[in-house]
Amino acid sequence: MVIRNNEGFLEDASAWTTDIAREIASEDAIDLSENHWEIIMFLRDFYNEHEISPPSNRLFVKAVKEAFGEAKGNSIYLMQLFPGTPAKTACRIAGLPRPTNCL
């Protein structure tokens, strides 16, 4: 059992596994597809490189756009994959800390 905070974020990002990601996603009724995994793994790489989650939705969209182009780096695409606040939802599933500027 991994320790999560009151918002569902892992207390220790290194405890993350793909099974944990599936469990967290299922709590939000998200069935992870290849498109989800592409963004999740991108976020984990981003975190490993910068030691921070993208701090806001705007910067999350910008980072995805730079990595994957306009078709995937836009709010509508990311909201379809990760409903609500995409950066917050995606980071939670990816086992990363809560983005600092997400409500």
Q: Can you describe this structure?
A:
- One of its GO terms (biological process) is tRNA wobble position uridine thiolation.
- It is an enzyme of class 2 (transferase).
- It is found in: Cytoplasm.
- Its main location: cytoplasm.
- It contains 5 helices and no strands.
- With 103 residues, the protein is mainly α.
- It has a domain of 72 residues: Orthogonal Bundle (Arc Repressor Mutant, subunit A).
In sequence order, what are the helices and strands, one letter per element? HHHHH
Distance between the termini: 27 Å
> Which second-level CATH architecture of the domain at 22-93 applies?
Orthogonal Bundle
Helix tally equals 5
Q: From the alpha-carbon coordinates, what is the Rg to the nearest angstrom?
A: 12 Å
SS-based structural class?
A: mainly alpha
Q: In which range does the helix fraction lie?
A: 40-55%
- Please state the overall shape, judged from the principal axes of the Cα atoms: globular
Give the tally of β-strands: 0
Strand content: under 5%
Poorly predicted sequence stretches spanning 5 or more consecutive residues: none
Q: Average pLDDT across residues?
A: 92
GO biological process, one term: tRNA wobble position uridine thiolation
Active site: 102
EC number: 2.8.1.-
Pfam family, one: DsrC
Index terms:
single chain, 103 residues, mainly alpha, Arc Repressor Mutant, subunit A, 5 helices
Summarize, please.
By secondary structure, this protein is mostly helical.
